[in-house]
Amino acid sequence: MLTSYYLRNKEKILEQAKEYYRKNRDKILERQRNYYQANKEKILQRQKAYRKKHAEKYAELYRKYRLKNIEKYRQYQRQYDRKRVKQKRELRRKMVIDYSTKMLWGVRKQPYPLNNECQACGSTHRLLNYHHVDDNNTEIGVWLCCYCHMRYHQHKKGTYKFALADKIDSMLDDIRSALKNKQQSS
Fold first, then answer.
1. Are the beta carbons of 157 and 128 closer than 8 angstroms?
2. Neighbour-count burial of 79, counting CB atoms closer than 10 A to its CB (0-12 exposed, 13-18 middle, 19+ buried)
3. Which of 38, 55, 148, 159 could form a disulfide with 144 if both were Cys (CB 3.0 to 4.6 A apart)?
4. How many beta carbons lie within 10 A of that of residue 145, not counting itself?
5. Nearest Cα residue to 130 out of 172, 162, 163, 160
6. Is the pTM of this model over 0.70?
7. Which of 127, 133, 124, 180 is nearest to 156 (CA)?
8. Is residue 91 classed as helix, strand or coil in its secondary structure?
């Protein structure tokens, strides 16, 4: 009997349900949020298991969505690419060395050793990093191999006793005094 009533008054029942939702939308959403917060782990596990089980179905859904909303998807990609370009630009600014030219990017520095030799240990088989003391004056720095650069920072933190640290400090002092003399003479 209930089924026949529903079939006869389907539009009326659906309209009443929509009206109830419109009137009580905030309460319904609050109840759903509370349920989700209380059972978040369980819900996420179920979703993850379902998506894993129906991976092909979701791949097809994503493909159809992208085709249907191609312009929206392209706009998202453009925004993402612009964001990545900014991030890459920031990374480049922070990079110490450009491997093709062996020059710092946008930073004044001491010249790169022509013989590709670490200024602390003298090794030539390693890539050189530029170590500078002051970010405001990057000209006060030396070219060190990766090993010496890492060990020097560990020495400064006090976690490692590095024998060549005194040599590096004296080189930095010499460069600092040479730059002062150069500035005073000009």
1. no
2. exposed
3. 148
4. 22
5. 172
6. no
7. 133
8. helix
Using CB atoms within 10 A of its CB, is residue 1 exposed (0-12), middle (13-18) or buried (19+)?
exposed
- For residues 109 and 132, the answer to whether their CB atoms sit within 8 Å is yes
Number of other CB atoms surrounding residue 93 within 10 Å: 10
For the stretch 17-72, pLDDT in tens is: 999 999 999 999 999 999 999 999 999 999 999 999 999 999 999 899 888 999 98
121 and 147 Cβ atoms separated by less than 8 Å: yes
Q: Supply the DSSP symbol for 112.
A: P
CA distance 182 to 178: 6
What is the total residue count of the chain?
A: 186
CB contact set of 108 (below 8 Å; sequence gap of 6+): 138, 139
Residue at 34: amino acid letter: N
Cβ-count burial of 162 within 10 angstroms (0-12 exposed, 13-18 middle, 19+ buried)? middle
